[in-house]
């Protein structure tokens, strides 16, 4: 027998009988998520949130708040006119020197500040992780109350890679002291639009 | 006594008296406790959330064979390859075969207990393949030549001064760097490794049957970078990490984050459901998922201990355990330490060699209290002890002692036969050693209650 058959046979031999389990109601909500609550959580995670009404506000805000940013990648040209073009060419290594990536988010979760991103909108999987700083543009209307509400919406069978990002990269591996900027993006900015 | 047991006792004795160690651990666990208290606030009904999590894992194990086949089918559909490994050696051989086929010399690896369980790094080193740990805590431990001290916080026993000294010694940095500066050093060292490595290896926090996905959670970004540039991504995962549906993550991500580190949710929560697809510009060209048994079906067979397979490796029972806090993670001499390690290791690696761990508990029940998936950890420790007796793993001397104790205790006549002083002598002679050097033996009163009663009635 192959290892596959061995293991499956061992499981079949040993696994429990089916039992009736109590039904526990779902935690799903119908109301929209609260942008103010979302903002508060993102800020406690070490991110910044700016509420904007038009994409044209992004560029001045970036100029004002980032002093060390010269190479900017923007998924949509209207986010940041004059951003680098042709950045998609290559195996991802070409992005190693990117200072700031501005990407769209599909939806945000008010209870924990997580934002759902898939490769369909970011084009290059590694972009949000290799960039030194990350900015996510998220419509105000796409904020949901909880993770349960988010999962009811997110996965499509064609998606190969998806990620919830909540705040900038961080670690507390040395004596539990929090350090922002471990291996991924050192900072996270969210532009809430609408 | 088995040599593992005597070495465990010796190391424990030493660590329990090490005040510096205790201070570091208490400091770190204190910070963890504060964070967890705040993290739990996000749950409107924590008890129901935990009960639900337990039910989901229960359901996952009820149908584990079907879920594994479903997972395999879905991952394969998108070009992923599934490999089955019955034991550690098979898992290692499969990984080596992939490395050889890819002519791999350099691997980046993100934190994974399954790879610790099979001792992957030392195995690859023997075959001249460098395997670099990329999680900061694991990186520190690898520099120091030590295994992880804790499931979630691998370098928990080191103070920031210890880490600064270690970096100075191994990497030539100044000896007084702060945690911020040390993190930056690791960030820069490892960025080059991500770009150069041929293969990236990760574990999986969960495998998801309905989408054929591998779910990985992390704060640092190292797992994502480890799977970005290398052309091959290998996942090594135990078969029990199964969740039936992607929707289950809505509960398990927050639960694992809160109980693991006190966060609402971890920074990066990724789902991989295959290698690079047509039209995609980056990501690994090949993805292998190795589904490992390595003793897990033994646990499944044991109807009581079965629920220990619900474990999501959050580490909260370690942090809650008075024994762990005093003897530390390394004294156990096992990959999985603390209460859950003491429950599963005898099943995974043999009763005879590891049953002593099931006795390293006061059965205070704090582990059960803090378990997010409500595993009855302390009762399973008791269950292991019971099983050890039934399967004859206890010594003849112990059996004799208990037999004598039972005979005497059940007989009024024998209890009255000798005075308190004789009973005290008897205790000293037969039980002093088991009772331990650090606590006083109970003392029998010179007159028993029975005698006092009789005297009063005269």
TrEMBL record, chain A:
It comes from the Bacteria. InterPro entries: FTHF_cligase-like_sf, LUD_dom, NagB/RpiA_transferase-like. It holds the Pfam family LUD_dom. Residues 93-193 form the LUD domain. PANTHER family: LACTATE UTILIZATION PROTEIN C (PTHR43682). This is Lactate utilization protein B/C. It comes from Chitinophaga tropicalis. The lineage of its organism: Bacteria, Pseudomonadati, Bacteroidota, Chitinophagia, Chitinophagales.
UniProtKB/TrEMBL annotation, chain B:
GO terms for biological process: lactate metabolic process. Keywords: 4Fe-4S, Electron transport, Iron, Iron-sulfur, Metal-binding, Repeat, Transport. Coiled coil: none annotated. Residues 301-332 form the 4Fe-4S ferredoxin-type domain. It comes from the Bacteria. One of its GO terms (molecular function) is metal ion binding. NCBIfam families: LutB/LldF family L-lactate oxidation iron-sulfur protein. PANTHER family: LACTATE UTILIZATION PROTEIN B. This is Iron-sulfur cluster-binding protein.
